[in-house]
Amino acid sequence: MNQDLSIINLLLHASFVVQLVVALLVIVSIASWAAIIRKYFALRRMRALNEDFEREFWSGTSLNELFASAAQNAKFAGPMERIFASGMREYQKLRERHVTDAGTLLDGARRAMRASFQRELDAAEQNLSFLATVGSVSPYVGLFGTVWGIMHAFTGLAALAQVTLATVAPGIAEALVATAIGLFAAIPAVVGYNRFAREIDKIAIALETYIEEFSNILQRNLSANPAAGGAGSSVAPANR
């Protein structure tokens, strides 16, 4: 009896629709686990790169040197370094156009950093919508398979003169497997989505804080050296 009611045996004797639902849920579950693993390592790398750059930023290195390093390391840079590079790039372009107004320089750098921040946030949130969809839809797909399986089981029982628990149990068990697999696919996706959403919120807060701090540094440098807006001037080491 235990062998007859094993999950593999139940699936082999289930109706085609139930088998199709289970196959779909298994594929979705594998895809969600792959997305979870990729996102885990991506966020881990993102945090490490941000921490490394922030350490270097506050070490006293001049902004020009940091910008040159960020330009050379653009392919392997983290979100914070790319945001810094975007702000400095816009700042340098405005200076090359002989913009001397401190407010214009600062506003241009801030807008460039905000645009870069939004791009980084969109990249960090990639695949989160997929996990949310799997977590919310999978139980209902499994439930559909269960309902269909129960209907199929009762249809088969209608031709029997005597119905006992032994005749009902296999059909019901076949149908319930779909719900179980639906939950198996949904639960990790929901847990992963919630955890990654919290991690991305923390990263976003850290990046927004950095934008404000860097903007304050630029403002202090512009106030201390009003001629920094000139075409030939260089950015002084940050007073950090």
UniProtKB/TrEMBL annotation:
The chain crosses the membrane at residues 12-37, 128-151, 171-193. GO terms for cellular component: plasma membrane. InterPro entries: ExbB/TolQ_transport, MotA_ExbB_proton_chnl, Tol-Pal_TolQ. Keywords: Cell cycle, Cell division, Cell inner membrane, Cell membrane, Membrane, Transmembrane, Transmembrane helix. Residues 79-207 form the MotA/TolQ/ExbB proton channel domain. Part of the Tol-Pal system, which plays a role in outer membrane invagination during cell division and is important for maintaining outer membrane integrity. The Tol-Pal system is composed of five core proteins: the inner membrane proteins TolA, TolQ and TolR, the periplasmic protein TolB and the outer membrane protein Pal. They form a network linking the inner and outer membranes and the peptidoglycan layer. This is Tol-Pal system protein TolQ. It comes from Variovorax guangxiensis. The gene is tolQ.
